[in-house]
Design brief:
By secondary structure, the protein is of the alpha+beta class. The chain is built from four helices and four strands, in the order αβαββαβα. Strand 2 and strand 3 form a beta hairpin. The protein starts with a helix and ends in a 9-residue tail after the last helix.
């Protein structure tokens, strides 16, 4: 059980590092004989996700489509794909498949323009909202 948690934690750590590479516009390396996945534009209102997979990129793309997502780009060397979806339960659905080993919402981790708001800033709770919520910290009253 501990080995699974360590492996899952390491996978998500790698996923977070790779997410920043995709956000920076890193071009995927293509090798001869690699599966091809068509690049598409992100649909309006869709959220962007990064999924990690082991093995076949085509199986991960099929699992993504079955969960309501659309593959935008694949980096087979790293075993990750950039995906968009407007399906409300996409993240939980794609994580439940055997073809995907990890998934997270993609977002920028920094900004090049000082003072510019984070692109998901409107989704963060305000200080007043946080103060009214019960604490979930261990040992909290």
């Amino acid at each position: 059980m501990r080995r699974i948690r360590i492996a899952a934690g390491a996978s998500l750590g790698v996923l977070a590092l790779v997410t920043s590479s995709l956000a920076a516009g890193a071009a995927p390396a293509r090798t001869e004989g690699s599966a091809t996945v068509r690049r598409v534009a992100q649909p309006e209102g869709a959220a962007e996700y990064v999924i990690a997979y082991q093995g076949d990129a085509t199986a991960a793309a099929e699992a993504t489509a079955a969960a309501g997502g659309q593959v935008v780009d694949v980096n087979e060397d790293l075993g990750i794909a950039l995906v968009t979806s407007s399906a409300p339960g996409f993240l939980a659905d794609v994580q439940a498949t055997e073809a995907v080993v990890g998934a997270a919402r993609n977002h920028s981790v920094g900004t090049a323009a000082p003072g510019r708001a984070h692109r998901f800033a409107d989704e963060r709770p305000t200080a007043a909202e946080v103060a009214t919520q019960p604490s979930t910290a261990a040992g909290a009253p």
